[in-house]
Design brief:
The complex is a heterodimer. By secondary structure, chain A is α+β, with helices and mostly antiparallel strands. Chain A has 13 helices and twelve strands. In chain A, the strands form two sheets. In chain A, strands 4-5-10-7-9-8 form a six-stranded mixed β-barrel. Chain A is elongated. By secondary structure, chain B is α/β, with parallel strands linked by helices. In chain B, helix 3 packs across helix 4 and helix 3 runs parallel beside helix 5. The two termini of chain B are 28 Å apart. In chain B, 46% of the residues are buried. Classes of the chains: A alpha+beta, B alpha/beta. At the A-B interface, helix 1, helix 10, helix 11 and helix 13 of A face helix 2 and helix 3 of B.
């Protein structure tokens, strides 16, 4: 008998008992649907974390000032003001470093005509767009001579543009007033969206760091140094040489602790993706358990079905079905059941995922390999749990089976 | 002519716990093509065991059985299944149709296992349904039919592989008198017009009366083998 004929027989037998077939599938359907929804949420979350980390810039290393200790109370990273633009210039000469940009940031009000908006002002170098992999939408970014002369020029993020120029006027050439200082808008940035922490990255105004230090903060120090390594492999050695150089420049001798901290986003990304992998493995475990429970359900019903259909099996044998044919037919029934159950489960999971995405606005993604894997695993569950009942059917004695009441 | 069935010194012994049951104790019988034989006897006489062995559902403990000229006494269960599917037709007391399945699909079933192509299956099944006079019920489900109609479907099913022998085990046991007569007339017609060889197992003399030859079993032996001079019609 061909596979097609076997499957056709199995389907006919399943259709004959629609209600029971559907109930038998239910375990697998729910199992697979649960897997798809949880994986969709898990992978979606992981992808969005990964994306927002990547959106911060490629091969990014961040140096922040260390903590300051006042009368025994340590203030935490960033509280000390130890990093200077000169540190940045020195770091830029290190091998493996592609670009360095200081970052001076402050939160303040920006005014344009009738509109005002509270936003983050970032004083940076022209290299900043490269370090953050950020593009220019309109106009131009400031250059080295703007930095040298501490020019009053600004580049606006998309959110700031929407808030300050709600009429849709081009902000280019307009004047915005930051802390009473008039800045000319020379360019706009492309939209970056939310960061991994849910912060709107487009809610910012970029100005030359020299301009920010002289006109806005009045401090000789910067909040952090953003460094871009040549490539991912260069991150670790570059990080080590940064630490060494800064310890030298800041005259720190062990056991004295560093007054700065060097972090790279790759390691944060790795940690995040590792957490994601562990989550996915856990989910896969839960999925496997639920599918096995579904499989036991199939085995149960198939055993009942074999008993109930003993006479039918006797008849099939008397009209020429071999034992192996009966085995294949019942095996095909459980495989068809579990596979269809798996497919319905994928559909239900897909609908559930859409529902979750629609209700919670969480990022979701259904990886196709998980869809394939769940259907394949369902089919395997069908084979594994269908074999024993099918063997019971095949081992029946035709005479006994025909007599069975 | 090669006999359809030729058994010699056929024995069947069952071991039941400590005891042994001798169901058949040396049976000799020859069935020629075109015969219509009724096998009679009280329960426990061995007639059912005999039918199971002749129908290749069971194997003899001793003796020989030649079906259509070839020895089938020691065949594997797969080989016996293949012969059942290709050369034998079964009709049972309880019809044994698949529930919630059309008459047509029921009749096609043996051909599915024999690997007959779909279009060919349909053609033959309709032809046999017509032969038993219920082609108009082809699309009906078995549970929507009367007992007599169901038994006709079962008979059509037994005919699809053009069997060398039809084995009918108490085919009228579940039917009323009128339907019983109809079914027996159908067997007579198949025997006379189609030349089908029929072996009927029954314990009712009125049913056996339709056969041309009556074989009586008692205690595992054939005690009577007579031609039926006064056939019912």
């Amino acid at each position: 008998m061909t596979i097609k004929a076997t499957v056709a027989l199995a389907l006919a037998a399943l259709v004959r008992n629609k209600a029971r077939s559907l109930l038998t599938m239910l375990g697998i359907v729910i199992g697979v649907a649960a897997v798809i929804v949880t994986v969709a949420i898990g992978v979606g979350a992981r992808t969005s974390v990964q994306q927002s980390i990547n959106s911060l810039g490629s091969n990014l290393i961040v140096v922040q000032p260390g903590s300051v200790t006042q009368t025994g109370a340590r203030g935490g990273f960033g509280t000390a003001s130890t990093l200077t633009p000169d540190d940045g210039l020195a770091l830029a000469k290190l091998p493996g470093v592609a670009a360095v940009s200081p970052l001076v940031s402050l939160r303040t009000q920006v005014v344009a005509g009738q509109n005002n908006w509270q936003t983050t002002i970032a004083g940076v170098a022209p290299t900043y767009t490269f370090v953050r992999s950020w593009g220019i939408d309109q106009g131009r970014f400031f250059n080295d001579s703007d930095v040298a002369s501490a020019s009053k020029v600004a580049v606006l993020g998309q959110t700031v543009i929407t808030e300050l120029f709600p009429n849709g006027d081009s902000p280019l050439g307009q004047t915005v007033i930051i802390k009473g200082v008039p800045y000319t808008v020379i360019g706009t940035l492309t939209a970056l969206g939310q960061s991994g922490m849910g912060q709107d990255q487009d809610d910012t105004v970029l100005v030359p760091y020299t301009s920010a230090m002289q006109r806005l903060t009045g401090l000789p120090t910067v909040n952090s140094l953003m460094i871009s390594a040549n490539n991912a492999d260069a991150i670790d050695p570059v990080q080590a040489s940064i630490t060494q150089l800064l310890e030298q420049r800041h005259r720190i001798v062990p056991p004295e602790s560093d007054d700065f901290q060097v972090r790279n986003l790759q390691s944060i990304a790795q940690a995040a993706s590792q957490t994601g992998t562990i989550m996915e493995l856990l989910l896969a475990g839960v999925a496997a358990v639920s599918l096995i429970v579904g499989g036991i359900g199939i085995m149960n019903i198939m055993l009942v079905s074999v008993t109930e259909r003993t006479r039918e099996i006797g008849l099939r044998m008397s009209v020429g079905a071999r034992a192996a044919t009966i085995l294949r037919q019942f095996l095909a029934e459980s495989i068809v059941l579990s596979t269809i159950g798996g497919c319905i489960g994928v559909l239900a999971g897909g609908i559930g995922t859409l529902l979750v995405a629609w209700l919670t606005h969480w990022p979701t993604a259904i990886p196709p390999q998980w869809v394939l894997a769940s259907v394949a695993f369902s089919a395997m569950v069908g084979i594994f749990f269908g074999y024993y009942p099918a063997r019971q059917a095949a081992q029946l004695d035709p005479i006994e089976a025909l007599r069975f009441e | 002519m090669t006999p359809v069935v030729h058994v010699a010194a056929l024995r069947k012994t069952y071991v039941l716990g400590e005891g042994r049951v001798e169901a058949l104790r040396g049976v000799d019988l020859t069935l020629q093509p075109g015969e219509f034989v009724a096998v009679m006897g009280p329960s426990g006489s061995g007639k059912s065991t005999f039918m199971h062995i002749v129908g290749l559902l069971d194997t003899p403990s001793a003796g020989t059985y030649a079906f259509e000229g070839s020895d089938v006494s020691h065949l594997s269960s797969d080989a016996r299944a293949d012969i059942r599917g290709r050369r034998l037709g079964f009709v049972f007391q309880a019809y044994n149709l698949l529930p919630r399945t059309s008459a047509l699909d029921n009749v096609e079933l043996p051909m599915v296992y024999a690997g007959v192509h779909e279009a060919e299956r349909r053609r033959i099944a309709l032809e046999k349904l017509e032969l038993v006079g219920i082609q108009h019920l082809a699309a009906h489900n078995s549970n929507q039919m009367s007992g007599g109609q169901q038994q006709r479907v079962a008979i059509a099913r037994s005919l699809v592989n053009d069997p060398g022998l039809i084995l009918a085990d108490e085919p009228t046991g579940a039917l009323d008198t009128k339907s019983s007569q109809d079914i027996m007339r159908l067997f007579t017609r198949l025997n006379e017009e189609q030349g089908m060889t029929v072996m009927l197992v029954t314990h009712e003399p009125e049913v056996a009366a339709y056969a041309r030859r009556i074989v009586t079993f008692r205690d595992g032996l054939i005690t009577g083998d007579v031609l039926n001079e006064r056939r019912a019609a």
